[in-house]
Amino acid sequence: MSAAAPITQDVLTIPRKLPEGPVNLVGLTREQLKDALLAAGTPEKQVKMRSNQVWQWLYQKGVRSFDDMTNLAKDYRAMLAEHFVIELPEVVSRHVSEDGTRKYLVRIAGGHEVEVVYIPEEGRGTLCVSSQVGCTLTCSFCHTGTQKLVRNLTAGEIVGQVMLARDDLGEWPKPGRHPKDETRLLSNIVLMGMGEPLYNFENVRDAMKIAMDPEGISLSRRRITLSTSGVVPEIARTAEEIGCLLAVSFHATTNKVRDKLVPINKRWNIEELLDALKAYPKLSNSERITFEYVMLKDVNDSDEDARRLIKLIRGIPAKINLIPFNEWPGAPYQRSDWKRIKAFADIIYKAGYASPIRTPRGEDIMAACGQLKSATERARKSKKQIEAEAGLSSA
Ligand code: SAH
Ligand code: SF4
């Protein structure tokens, strides 16, 4: 096929064009970064080295200005500044709870806002990251579920949450020092903020790849947990393309109840979900799957439920994380009594499973699971109300 050869060559030698306007380097995969530097005029021979250097400045050292990239020539830095920006979501407000939990409200392009929560614990610190503004799903106990999906976050906006938290914690390493996961303030990531991460698969994957990259933020894949409501077709892909730990919002032991609590169950029911989960640890070479189970009074918290749960998950390496329901204004459920949660946990524990009860954290700043965004929205609403009452409203 001699005719094909020149065309291929042409494609290789024509510099790829950058889109109009400056390109944000944060969130580009290594391949995309190389392509972008090439398109901006970096000679082909140098592009591998240059992209490694830029990568390390961004993700290992946390610099935010091309001027600080001191191992690059001055004119190369000027070229970078002409074509690119280094942009993180903007922190609009920051609340610190009595228990040390930090909640950041961050603004992303288009003026949308999402929340990020940092939870310090004994020997580790976990960042709860959002993947979407709102959620398409409508789990009946979840406040995010009452908000419409506004949009998916980009990879840069997702890994940007990790970076801004490191900024706030002052955790970019000094030159030559690479703290181990165990000694870090931000040692774990959970994709348990707003949104369904498996409905934004590519961006979540790219962001987590960046967070795991050994020449950067360098978090082990075992310290990243992705929580899904049960998007069955994407579960195997999560194992293959991300390889992090998996948590699943199980929450019920019959399809009838799960249909109500986690309506995606009508699309992929408990049996289909369990089939996908059985394959997961083998595919990703990972540890146990976390079954999240929100404790709702008189809905899913009986001894019978506990026993059914054990039966269902038999054969799957699992731990069960019991989440006392975090109430929000207007929620149609109540938190199970403490005694009931204990009794439920006990049955599970006796069957040989770890059954930690998740301590609600940051409740005083509305930072607990499933409460995200609500405080902000309420604050807005009441501000509007106040304005209306004072006759300031333009409406
Ligand atoms: N969309 C994903 C991840 C975000 S939600 C998912 O559903 O898994 C993170 C966890 O918080 C999920 O287990 C979710 O079911 C739980 N959750 C949501 N609202 C809650 C609430 N009000 N109280 C306690 N847990 C809640
Ligand atoms: Fe979306 Fe998860 Fe909330 Fe369900 S629990 S509505 S999937 S964020």
Q: Pairing-aware structural class of the strands and helices?
A: alpha/beta
Helix content: 25-40%
Please report the total strand number as a whole number: 13
Beta-sheet strand percentage? 15-25%
Q: What is the average of the pLDDT values?
A: 87
Radius of gyration over C-alpha positions, nearest whole angstrom? 23 Å
Largest sheet: 9 strands, mixed
Rounded to the nearest angstrom, the distance between the terminal CA atoms is 69 Å
Low-confidence runs: 1-13, 374-395
Strand order of the largest sheet: 3-4-5-6-9-10-11-12-13
Bound ions, cofactors and other small molecules, one mention each: S-adenosyl-L-homocysteine, iron/sulfur cluster
Shape: elongated
Give the helix/strand layout.
Layout: H1 4-13, E1 23-24, H2 30-39, H3 47-59, H4 74-83, E2 84-85, E3 90-96, E4 102-108, E5 112-121, E6 124-128, E7 132-133, E8 151-152, H5 155-169, E9 188-191, H6 201-212, E10 224-228, H7 235-241, E11 245-249, H8 255-261, H9 270-284, E12 289-295, H10 303-313, E13 318-324, H11 338-350, H12 374-389
Parallel strand pairs: 1-2, 6-9, 9-10, 10-11, 11-12, 12-13
Antiparallel strand pairs: 3-4, 4-5, 5-6, 7-8
Helix pairs in contact: 2-3, 5-6, 7-9, 10-11
The structure holds S-adenosyl-L-homocysteine and iron/sulfur cluster.
